[in-house]
Amino acid sequence: MASKKYDLVIKDGRVIDPALGFGKEAHVFVKNGRIVKIQKDSAAVARDLKSLDNDQLIDAAGKIVVPGLIDIHVHLREPGGEAKETIETGCRAAAAGGFTSVCCMPNTTPRIDNQETVKFVQDRAASADARVYVVGAITKNIEGKELSEIGDLVKIGAVAVTDDGNYVQNPEIMRRALEYARMFDIPVMQHAEDQFLCAGGVMNESFQSSRLGIKGAPAVAEEIAVTRDIALCQVTGGRLHIQHVTTRGAVEAIRKAKLAGINVTAEVTPHHLVLTDEEIGKEFNTNLRVNPPLRTAADRDAVIEGLIDGTIDCIASDHAPHAEQDKDCEFDMAPPGMIGLETTVGLIKTYLIDKGYLSWADAVRKMTSNPARILGLPGGNLAMDSPADITIIDPEKKWTVRADRFQSRSKNSAFIGYKLSGRVFKTIMGGRIVFG
Ligand SMILES: [Zn+2]
Asked: How far apart are alpha carbons 168 and 225 in whole angstroms?
């Protein structure tokens, strides 16, 4: 039997690839799991399309076709937290949210601070619906006391290190982490919140926390942490990535550092772009308990500004699953974190693009080529002969977030009931349709 000319063609979509500077209607041709052609309509192309079977064609008219999205901040919970999420269910949630690549955080049980655990995650992820890149721990057991074997972690495939969930409180250890990571050309990702200033705080320290009588974690805890690490980044010549930026002061510090040529990058979550601490008093919804906490409207506006002007490089969900019984308690007893993979695209469309803050190209860049660049990951563009990781978005699709529709094993989203515009239509990884 003659081999087929193409395995899959996505036709008539608006192809947006910020990395390649592409943004127009075209057909995307896939063969053997790779992108082999992107072409506008023509008589020759029409003949090609005619020769294909229906099941090889995806009609993307009215849709947006973009590189497979990349989320560099995801908690997959396995090993150890399988009641909340597994690598398999987390990757299914990723696919449903349009993400073909995710970076998983090391605060599992056991911690991902050694080669065996990295290997375990990689093996489990081999058959999953998304590519999983492992971020190893900066310190052994994420205790902030003794550096993990960063070289060993990199050798087996870790793409970065972080103690996410914890701040590396000891500056001498953070300094050495930046120095070691530099030798392997990987960034150190930091959950930047001074632990002493945050101790006991479960929401932003503000008018709202005093009004509600809930202990707050102050913005200055993040600002001190970010400022200290920028100074260490400068002195070591290492690469620093600030996770989930939330405050005006942190945005300003990062902006200044970038202007000074210091090698710092940053991410922001959809929930910090959309929500403020004013939400908490309404229903004490424990899904609003996140670290760092939801801040004031002024902080939210500052992170949006930072995202627009490039101070903040990328959008990352900090997808943090928790079982229902764990969040079914008083607000201040709830574990921090909410899921995010399946609501990111709808939230960014509804709250950033529709409000005129970002264009589609800007938003896509912050979820594809920018995160790929920060971590040196493959993908993030639709280059010829690259693996066919492609996300198709229905930009005007109206939908309501429903707990029973989540692919994630956990349902702890603060956005349940929200009416959003813009939804993932299909997700393709390596030429295989993994969602839609
Ligand atoms: Zn974190």
From this structure: 9
**380 within a domain of the structure (yes/no):** no
pTM listed for this prediction: 0.97
Domain that holds residue 29: 8-65+387-435
3-state helix, strand, coil in the chain (%, to 5): 35, 25, 40
Based on the domain organization, do 334 and 425 belong to the same domain?
no
Kindly report the length of the chain. Answer: 436
- The pLDDT tens digits of the residues spanning 209-267 come to 999 999 999 999 999 999 999 999 999 999 999 999 999 999 999 999 999 999 999 99
Residue type, 157: G
Neighbouring residues of the ion ligand 1, judged by CB less than 5 Å: 164, 191
Q: Domain with 347 in it: what CATH number?
A: 3.20.20.140
Copy the structure tokens of residue 54.
């229906």
Burial of 298 (0-12, 13-18, 19+ CB in 10 A): exposed
407/396 Cα distance (integer angstroms): 22
> How far, in whole angstroms, is CA 221 from its chain's centroid?
23
* Tokens at 428, concatenated: 């393709």
Centre of ligand 1 to C-alpha 70, Å, is 17
Q: How far apart are CA 414 and CA 406, in angstroms?
A: 13
- Neighbour tally for 169: CB within 10 Å: 16
CA 21 – ligand 1 centroid, Å = 32
Of 430, 422, 391, the residue nearest 70 (C-alpha): 391
CA of 226 to the centre of ligand 1 (A): 13
CB 118 within 8 A of CB 156: yes
Structural domain contains residue 1 = no
The answer, yes or no, to whether residue 3 has pLDDT greater than 80, is: no
CA distance 412 to 278: 19
372 and 70 in contact (C-beta within 8 Å)?
yes
Q: Which residues are catalytic?
A: 318
- How far is ligand 1, taken at its centre, from the CA of residue 253, in Å? 19
Q: How far is the CA of 426 from the centre of ligand 1 (A)?
A: 29
Q: What is the pLDDT of residues 259-311, one digit of tens each?
A: 999 999 999 999 999 999 999 999 999 999 999 999 999 999 999 999 999 99
